[in-house]
Design brief:
Blueprint: H1 2-13, H2 22-34, E1 42-44, E2 51-53, E3 55-62, E4 68-75, H3 118-126, E5 141-146, E6 150-156, E7 166-172, H4 180-189, H5 192-200, E8 208-212, E9 222-229, H6 237-253, E10 258-262, H7 278-295, E11 305-311, H8 317-333
Parallel strand pairs: 6-11, 7-9, 7-10, 10-11
Antiparallel strand pairs: 1-2, 3-4, 5-6, 8-9
Helix pairs in contact: 6-7, 7-8
Amino acid sequence: MSVWVGVGAFAAARHLSCWRDPRWDDAEDWRVGTAAGFQTPAMVCPRGCYDELARRELVTRTSLFGSALVRVKFAFETETCPTCGSRLVGECGRCEQRVLAPVSDRCRFCGLPQPWSPERRSTARRTRSRPWRFDARDPAVLVHAAPGRGELLIVEGDVTSVAVDAVVSNDDVDGRMYTVIASSIKAVAGPDVERQSIAQGPFPLGEAWYTDAGALPAPIRGIIHVAAMDRRGGSDSGTLVRCALAALEEARRQRLTSLAIAAFGTGPRGRQQKLIDLDDWLAAVGEAIVHEFASWDVVPGRAPLSVLFVLYDPPRFEESAKRLWSAASAAAAALPGVRAHAPPVFGELA
């Protein structure tokens, strides 16, 4: 008799919270609130050429007494668009609410048109190249200046729509443009620029070469390609620094006066590509460019080269700009006869 009483008490106690894992209770509440009404999260290309619904995986756990606890797990096949290579987004840029299926052109929560909506895309096509030095409303921040040699600036924007002489595309050693930044450039410039690039290859890691700008908006007149990774997508911070310096040398050979460089090779660490942190990239490449400017001779009649770091929708632009200025100032202080620039000022023309 006592055995049955003990079993009955144990069976009754299993309903108490002390006998249940609270994580499964939280997961069950999250499943009921999020998955109700088939509101499946989606990942969408910001250029409007691809969208993917999450794969709903049901994870069940059966307790000792037969009760089943269900958890819904959402998974996606890829993190980048298979058409243009852009990184897929799954939340509204303003209210940060998740994009839910079916995919709509406006955020269901705040009403903001998403980047892939016809309104945003048609407006982007009508927008002319953005000035970066004389536009007082949103100027580039001057980080370092070497009189007669060059200057280093940073701005927030799209590398394909900045009014410069050339942009940098990070390719592989065969000249193929399939990284996120290179694919974005190719999507605007057209596939012919990749054919020109491949025709000149293969190249050693860290090499730079030049093609025309294709359909990129004026005044962009060229693309400087760099071999930033091998055929398996492998790269490292040292290779990225060599690529940036090689791009500067190619710009001087082409007698360019302005060059836009996106933060290639940065981002969250993926399964295949070895990406580095944005702040580490800014520090390493910025310091190398300051040293490169110091090694150049002042040539009469040659205009200095303006190197513009272009960050696309960074989470903390001001912090990134200050990080770049800090690295550039430290590098300048270690060089004889080189003066560090004043700290960046935001909201005014640098």
